[in-house]
């Protein structure tokens, strides 16, 4: 797949993948893939037909028995080769991702590098898949347990991380544990995952182990009820995630649904102020605020609030807004015109609710890229608890400031939110830091860290309405999600033992 250049070149008609074959869809409906920096179309993704989606599931089901029986080291060797190819094509993938998603180059590279990080962690799957043993659990009886793959998984990916989520969170652990996958790529950004799948095939991926489709919600919903699908991974909105969780679970499937967030920071008066502000600037405006670990709300202790807001405005104004693929851009566009309009409406709603617009990013323009979907950094001060901008996910470069009297008030306001993906505190007090880590509802906690995303050997552990399921993605949770435990108890008896009466519990009960 050639890299689609950002300002010229034909609109490419994309294909879907079944059995390692890129196929032309028979659909009459194609979905536009845009360059957010220019607002111009660069490709079109097929809205695959139901037959085509079913074919992808059937291919994954056919591939499962042989892939399940492939030795774990052989599956891991595939990941080693895949990692080498990803490293070799890092610059190409970075540019492609920036072009279709809008992340600036440093962020786009980070997106790919986070996917590579998970691939590297998946190379240790043989350790994480190890079971347990216990000899002589009853006289002469031994028990061992194994972790086995389940079958076909559906992976439904969002637009905001075209590399890290589908090709990091979803694919590596799924296939190294022995499962097969149908990836429903985000139709707005399918090229990055498609190119990475090309590299995975080049690394030696057998036919049918991973298949890729783009489709509408109707066809995606069929994955939730298809008997061949054993589990569903999803990242996206809370409303859709809850629908997927309820529907798939009701049909006997495992579900891992990572959904919305409204992460809060608590800034205490003893913080290292400038470093705190710089950290929050990065956390709030990085990736144009389009990440579930963004930091869109800051609870600032009243005693330093004026000073904090003044410095925050100064540093936010220094950010260079620009096209994703131009060196030096620090704040790229949001994903679409519709998302831009949604963010701008939310800003107005915040003002209407009584917030003070310290910095208003609406109407941002970049010379030469006037059609781009740009929103400048926005700061809303005096945001009231319970207001829309302070409680609901906006998914854009908007910061809501809530002024609080002290630690206790700030923590209470944070924990009142229905989401609990992440939370962080900025302080030099070990006591407050420990108390915060213990009492915050956030599942991923930062102590002077604005984006507390853990390394991939740990789970991405959102709480409350930021997650629906029992086992989180990545780490030991991720391996457990993609496998099920089988316990085997055995006894070998002598000729004398064979003549003894068999008890109700067949010898496994140690007391009588």
Summarize the structure in words.
The chain has 512 residues and is an alpha/beta fold. The chain folds into 2 domains: 23-259 and 466-486, Aldehyde Dehydrogenase, Chain A, domain 1 (3-Layer(aba) Sandwich); 264-447, 3-Layer(aba) Sandwich (Aldehyde Dehydrogenase, Chain A, domain 2). 38% of the residues lie in helices and 22% in strands. The protein contains 17 helices and 23 strands. The chain has helices spanning 50-68, 72-88, 90-101, 105-122, 125-128, 164-176, 190-202, 217-225, 238-250, 273-285, 302-317, 337-352, 388-391, 407-415, 430-439, 475-481, 495-498, and strands at residues 12-13, 16-18, 21-23, 30-35, 40-46, 133-138, 141-149, 152-156, 180-184, 210-213, 229-235, 254-258, 264-267, 297-301, 356-359, 378-381, 398-404, 419-420, 422-426, 444-447, 463-464, 467-469, 483-491. The strands form 6 sheets. It has a 7-stranded mixed beta sheet, with helices on both faces. Strands 10-9-8-11-12-22 form a 6-stranded mixed beta sheet, sandwiched between helices. A 3-stranded mixed beta sheet has the order 1-5-4, covered by helices on one side. β8, α6 (164-176) and β9 (180-184) form a beta-alpha-beta unit. α2 (72-88) runs antiparallel to α4 (105-122), α8 (217-225) runs parallel beside α9 (238-250) and α10 (273-285) crosses α11. The chain is globular, with a radius of gyration of 25 Å. The relative contact order is 0.13. Mean pLDDT is 96; it is low at 1-8. Keywords: Oxidoreductase. Pfam families: Aldedh. Residues 22-488 form the Aldehyde dehydrogenase domain.
């Amino acid at each position: 797949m050639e890299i689609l250049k950002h300002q010229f070149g034909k609109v490419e008609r994309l294909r879907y993948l079944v059995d390692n074959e890129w196929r032309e869809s028979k659909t009459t409906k194609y979905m536009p893939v845009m360059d957010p920096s220019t607002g111009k179309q660069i490709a079109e993704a097929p809205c695959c037909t139901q037959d085509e989606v079913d074919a992808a599931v059937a291919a994954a089901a056919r591939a499962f028995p042989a892939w399940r029986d492939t030795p774990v080291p052989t599956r891991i060797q595939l990941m080693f080769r895949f990692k080498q190819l990803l490293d070799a094509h890092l610059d190409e993938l970075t540019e492609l991702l920036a072009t279709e998603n809008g992340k600036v180059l440093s962020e786009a590279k980070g997106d790919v590098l986070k996917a590579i990080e998970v691939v590297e962690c998946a190379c240790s799957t043989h350790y994480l898949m190890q079971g347990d043993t216990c000899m002589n659990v009853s006289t002469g009886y031994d028990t061992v347990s194994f972790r086995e793959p389940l079958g076909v998984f559906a992976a439904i990916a969002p637009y905001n991380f075209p590399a890290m989520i589908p090709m990091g969170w979803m694919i590596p652990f799924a296939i190294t544990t022995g499962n097969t996958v149908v990836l429903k790529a985000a139709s707005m950004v399918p090229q990055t995952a498609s190119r990475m799948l090309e590299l995975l095939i080049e690394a030696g991926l057998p036919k049918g182990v991973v298949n890729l489709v783009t489709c509408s919600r109707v066809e995606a919903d069929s994955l939730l009820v298809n008997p061949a699908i054993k589990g569903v991974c999803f990242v996206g909105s809370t409303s859709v995630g809850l629908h997927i969780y309820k529907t798939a679970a009701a049909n006997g499937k495992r579900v891992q649904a990572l959904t919305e967030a409204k992460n809060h920071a608590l800034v205490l008066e003893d913080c290292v102020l400038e470093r705190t502000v710089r950290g929050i600037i990065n956390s709030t405006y990085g990736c144009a605020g389009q990440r579930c670990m963004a930091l869109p709300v800051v609870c600032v202790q009243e005693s330093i609030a004026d000073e904090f807001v003044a410095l925050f405005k100064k540093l936010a104004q220094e950010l260079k807004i620009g096209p994703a693929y131009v060196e030096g851009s620090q704040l790229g566009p949001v994903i679409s015109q519709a998302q831009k309009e949604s963010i701008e409406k939310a800003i107005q709603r915040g003002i209407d609710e009584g917030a003070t617009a310290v910095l208003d990013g609406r109407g941002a323009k970049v010379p030469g890229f006037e059609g781009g979907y740009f929103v400048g950094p926005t700061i809303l001060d005096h945001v009231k608890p319970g207001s829309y901008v302070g409680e609901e996910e906006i998914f854009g470069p908007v910061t809501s400031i809530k002024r609080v009297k002290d630690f206790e008030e700030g923590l209470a306001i944070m924990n009142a939110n229905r989401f609990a993906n992440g939370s962080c505190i900025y302080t030099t007090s070990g006591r407050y830091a420990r108390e915060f880590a213990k009492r915050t509802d956030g599942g991923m906690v930062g102590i002077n860290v604005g984006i507390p995303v853990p390394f991939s050997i740990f789970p991405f552990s959102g709480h409350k309405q930021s997650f629906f399921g029992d086992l989180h993605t990545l780490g030991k949770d991720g391996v457990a999600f993609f496998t099920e435990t089988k316990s085997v108890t055995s006894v070998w008896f002598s000729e004398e033992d064979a003549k003894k009466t068999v008890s109700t519990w067949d010898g496994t009960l140690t007391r009588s």
